[in-house]
Design brief:
- By secondary structure, the protein is low in regular secondary structure.
- The protein contains 1 helix and no strands.
- It is about 15% helix and about 0% strand.
């Protein structure tokens, strides 16, 4: 299936390249220019007159409907609220004093046993490094001194005046 698809793709690519080569190699025929057609001038469009609308009909004023008054709400008597009962003061309970805390005796800490000193290990002596001879540097030819060029004196530009520093409040 995939080989069939690859063959179709190869054939379509080769036919497209042949068509492109044919278009590049052979001369194109000259296309004559067509004359521009002459169009008649635009006709004049007159503005249409505004239509006259009839006047709005008068609407007679309607009488206001009479709204009946709200019936008076009778005042209800205030309910009697009983007074708050007086709460008698309760006697303060006696709090027993805290018992004294006796200091505990400090525990005896045993002394650390003495650590015996260990003998220092003997290290071998450092090896000696022999001195190496200094490498010889190659001899470079001397560079001749060049004469200093003369630089003409140029006029100095005027120093710019700076605005005064603003005063800062401490």
């Amino acid at each position: 299936m995939s080989s069939l698809l690859l063959m179709a793709l190869l054939l379509s690519c080769s036919s497209m390249s042949n068509a492109a080569r044919w278009l590049e190699e052979y001369p194109h025929p000259a296309v004559p220019e067509l004359p521009k057609p002459e169009l008649p001038p635009h006709p004049e469009v007159h503005e249409l007159p505004k239509p006259e609308l009839p006047p709005h009909p008068e609407v007679p004023e309607l009488p206001k409907p009479e709204v009946p008054e709200h019936p008076a709400v009778p005042e209800l008597p205030k309910p009697e609220v009983p007074e708050h009962p007086v709460v008698p003061e309760l006697p303060k309970p006696e709090v027993p004093e805290h018992p004294a805390i006796h200091e505990l005796p400090k525990p005896e800490v045993p002394e650390h046993p003495a650590v015996p000193e260990l003998p220092k290990p003997e290290l071998p002596p450092h090896p000696t490094v022999p001195e190496l001879p200094k490498p010889e540097t190659p001899h470079y030819p001397a560079v001749p001194e060049l004469p200093h060029p003369e630089v003409p004196d140029l006029p100095h530009p005027k120093e710019q005046e700076l605005p005064p520093k603003p005063k800062t409040k401490p």
